[in-house]
Amino acid sequence: MMKTITSCLWINTTCSLIFRTYKREVQWLQLSERFIMLLLQYFKFHIISALLALEVSGKAKFPEDDLPGIFFVNNPKLNKLTGSEREELPGQAGDLGGSGAINLGDTEDYGGDIPNCGTSMTAKQRETLLEIHNKYRSEVAKGEYTIKTPKGKFRSLPPATRMYKLKYNCSLENSAVKWAIETKCKMIHTKGASYGENLFLAWGDTRPNRSDYAAASAPSSWSEEIRKFGISTLDEWRREIGHATQVFTARTKWIGCGIHTCGDTLSLVCHYYPGGNIVGVDMYTPGKTLSECGKNASNENLDENTGLCI
């Protein structure tokens, strides 16, 4: 009897020791896994930046169809440019011989009116897209775009010296409609384009006026990215804010958008010229609102109500 009891006690003690050891091992593995995940998150931005640098130099290929916008060669001297000098930068990759180049022409001006471009886009959709884009650009230009800091406080982005009021353009609308149709409602970016590009997809909405809702929700969603995810510097790029940085590119003057539906999926594409998302270059020049409008910063052609140059 005593031998049996002793054996049971020994087995129980041994099992308890094994269990405690196993439990410590499991806890250690869990902590190790958490540490590795935190480490990966810490280096995520640096890894993406390195890949983008290699992509620009032609030494590596980054999945273009997963990137919001088009990227340029990094040049630290470019951030020292004034607002007017920044406009002399080349367009997008298409200006260097890419396949996505289009010819806007400096004379394609509709006197501030929104044109009828002869596509499936309606006048209401064009007006909505243009109005919301300029609403957010105005907030930024006047220093009224607020973002939440990591400490839970709020701060405003600095005002812009030379932020243009966007005009609507039929060449850009035609290219946007064409791309929305060609990609069959998939999130694929144009390769080698001479313009900036933002994409928006919506699923499961079968309302007859869903295109009108998309025209309102897409630019708002893009423009809220920085408010939602934050930004440290005006030349910062992250996947989460890549659409907003295009919307807030000061030198962009024209916009055109297209909408296409594939069953219950809707694709909205907007093209911008000149394009933004230049690696290492600020979205805009910070400073006194409207202080660099007009030729040679002559303070001409400005809209004091919106804080945008015209």
TrEMBL record:
SUPFAM superfamilies in the record: PR-1-like (SSF55797)
UniProt xrefs under CDD domains: CAP_euk (cd05380)
SCP domain mapped to chain residues: 124-280
Protein name: SCP domain-containing protein
Pfam families: CAP
Source organism, top-level taxon: Eukaryota
